Amino acid sequence: MVYLYCHSGYGGSRTEADPDPYLQLGRRVKFKPLDIDLWADTDTWPLDHWQNRHPFVVLNGCHTAEVETGTLSSFVTEFTRTAGASGVLGTEIALEQGVASWAMELFLGELAQGAPVGSALRNTRWAMLGRGNLMGLAYTPYCLSQLSLRSPAMEEA
Question: Is 92 part of any domain?
Fold first, then answer.
């Protein structure tokens, strides 16, 4: 699994014909979908590792999986088609940081207990709804609903 707790934004203004999305980690690290494409096509990316494991990528930040009519590239496409990830989970709206942390605490807890992505996300949404919060619906999975993590014991077998 690859987990990115990040911010997302656009290089240009959202009114331009070609908004350029980016993910920001901390204050200094920003990368764009094209960067993932370049990493996957060069020796910079640990490609053999990704081909063998096909990690599930969680993009926990505002608008990380958003695709608009003017957007020509997306992180979902670059991670799945280009880099070979097994799937991506992201959001298409803005989230408050505390809610994002809580949602992923619930979701990752479900995954760690062996639940597939679809069930883990459904259980997360119900738990949040039970406390009066609809923001679990902000997360969109781009993968098979039965996708699950392999335990280290399965890796050794």
Answer: yes
